[in-house]
């Protein structure tokens, strides 16, 4: 009698051949959902609502790479899941019915405490004030934020880049602007300076697919430190504006300016020195010169070349060695100009 080959997969039954096993990531854990082979994005939304108790109004599906972020009601509710590119990752963002109920319960409890406190004050009793949390703001901040922060692991001290990205995410002004404009960003990551520097220009930021990914140039050109925090935050405001408007037209610049003003106005920490400020500040690198460009406009797929207004250019990116040499030359030139100015001032006749 022939032995069974246990390593060979068993043939699928007719019922199994008509089933689509879809892996969806939720709270960092993969969940396998079973649907029909011809299931659509609407069918997936219905199954999530039934099995995970996440109502459609709370659902967001981040599908990467492309096509991007989907939320009910879908633009194309008949989009078939088997038409998606192979090996895509589907991430589910949203609060369950229970989580929403818990939040509403906490708000109700808070209101009851406030009513009791007011009643006590009216009765002439002294009540010690207690700190409470604005649950509406907390819920919005959890929704309109950066889902993932990712430094570049192949560069020196990625943990510092992660702290820089966390500082941007937790910036009071940035958080306020994202709540107001209802911006959700799938991934906030750092940019490798060598990959986005040419002999003509260098790019400070990129926004892909209106918030699917935002890249920021955190490090100096020579990889010896980090650029000034306010320059990077200004660049982030620019990239957030691309969540709504792609080209650099009049409407875009008006929105960018509005977001910047909102960030400055709501940054209650600007009056003091934030913890770890000196870790990211590099004297002489807190400027944006004529060769710096925030980006070439919001883009979908492809690659915008640095300092170009089109998606294609003959400009070749600098290698890391070339980028470091270019930065050292710029610093030497700046230092030489400063020395000439000092010598001129010292030799000037007294007035």
TrEMBL record:
It comes from the Eukaryota. Pfam families: WLM. Residues 306-316 have a biased composition (Polar residues). Coiled coil: none annotated. Residues 137-333 form the WLM domain. Residues 318-332, 341-351 have a biased composition (Basic and acidic residues). GO terms for molecular function: proteasome binding. Transmembrane segments: none annotated. InterPro entries: Ubiquitin-like_domsf, WLM_dom. Residues 266-351 are annotated as: Disordered. This is WLM domain-containing protein. It comes from Aureobasidium subglaciale (strain EXF-2481).
